Amino acid sequence: MSETALMAMAGRFLSALRHCQVLQMRVHHADAEGMTLVLPWSAAIVGNPQTGAVHGGVLTTLMDTTCGMATLCVLPQFEVCPTLDLRIDYMHPAQPGKDIHGHAQCYRVTRDVIFTRGTAYQDDPAQPICQVVGTFMRLGQEARGGIRFGSGLKEGRA
């Protein structure tokens, strides 16, 4: 799949997730090497008002979404791939006022499971806020719930 088509599919997928809309997440980059999303900093994502630290649940949402969307980069067609397991190791708090990037890639694809890894960072990918590994179950394209992200069409359920 071309990078342009992948970016378009990723954008449609992200726009279908209400919590990602509320957080104003956007696709920064997508190619065969992985997916990068951006979470804009706002006062609404702060978990500790005294320090300005970002809420851990917001980082979990960013990285679960990024890892899940990285599956788009390795599959020939859209498939529903719910999260089986997600492990996050927090390295240091995010700096207030700066956007957060989430990057993930798939490092193994089997018939039933896709394995991912990634990081969240601000200015420097070599200084991650957290590292993550996740597994996602392949349900196949027949389990897509009537949504065809690959073609841009949305069909109703019968």
Task: State the main characteristics.
158 residues; alpha+beta; Thiol Ester Dehydrase, Chain A; six-stranded antiparallel beta sheet; two-stranded antiparallel ribbon; 3 helices; globular
Question: How would you describe the overall organization of this protein?
Answer:
This protein has one domain: Hotdog Thioesterase (Thiol Ester Dehydrase, Chain A, Roll). The chain is built from three helices and ten strands; from the N terminus they run H-H-E-E-E-E-H-E-E-E-E-E-E. It has helices at residues 3-15, 18-22, 56-70; strands at residues 26-31, 34-39, 46-48, 53-54, 83-90, 100-109, 113-121, 130-137, 147-148, 153-154. The strands form three sheets. Strands 1-2-6-7-8-5 form a six-stranded antiparallel β-sheet. The chain is globular and about 45 Å long. The two termini are 30 Å apart. The model is unreliable at 146-158 (pLDDT under 50).
CATH class designation: Alpha Beta
User: What string, H for helix and E for strand, traces the elements in order?
Assistant: HHEEEEHEEEEEE
Strand proportion, as a percent range, falls in 35-45%
CATH topology: Thiol Ester Dehydrase, Chain A
Structural class: alpha+beta
Spatial order of strands in the largest sheet: 1-2-6-7-8-5
Tally of domains: 1
